[in-house]
Design a protein that fits this description.
Length: 125
């Protein structure tokens, strides 16, 4: 995983976990990698992963079964979408809209690009 400088690492790891959930790689009630396992995999401090897991637990995306580990919460997909939607609307969309305005990109052009992106990224094997 390549980390960006503009956002805290634990938040980027949260995005990584959320993406795995939304893509169906990690499913409800499944155990997620332990704090140490994910820290080794991502080459970060275990405390950083623990901070991520605590954030996601507070958002009802992960649940902690004491002594066993962290698991994907039953309503994780719904909760991830809510959490990520708020983030996107508050943080990314204003920057995106500014670029659209400054570059004079219309919604029709944007829609065509979006449809091509979805087709190429998610429907081709």
């Amino acid at each position: 995983m390549e980390f960006r400088d503009n956002k805290a690492i634990y938040l980027q790891i949260a995005e990584y976990v959320c993406e795995h959930i939304l893509l169906g790689k990690w499913k409800a009630d499944e155990k997620v990698p332990s704090v140490r396992e994910l820290a080794v995999e991502l080459e970060v401090n275990p405390n950083t992963v623990m901070r991520t897991y605590e954030l996601l637990q507070n958002k009802d995306i992960l649940s902690n079964k004491r002594g066993i580990g962290f698991f994907i919460a039953e309503q994780a997909v719904k909760n991830v979408k809510n959490y990520r939607k708020v983030q996107f609307m508050d943080e990314e969309l204003p920057v995106f809209f500014r670029s659209l305005y400054l570059l004079e990109i219309g919604f029709e052009e944007l829609q065509n690009r979006y449809q091509s992106f979805v087709k190429e990224t998610f429907t081709n094997p």
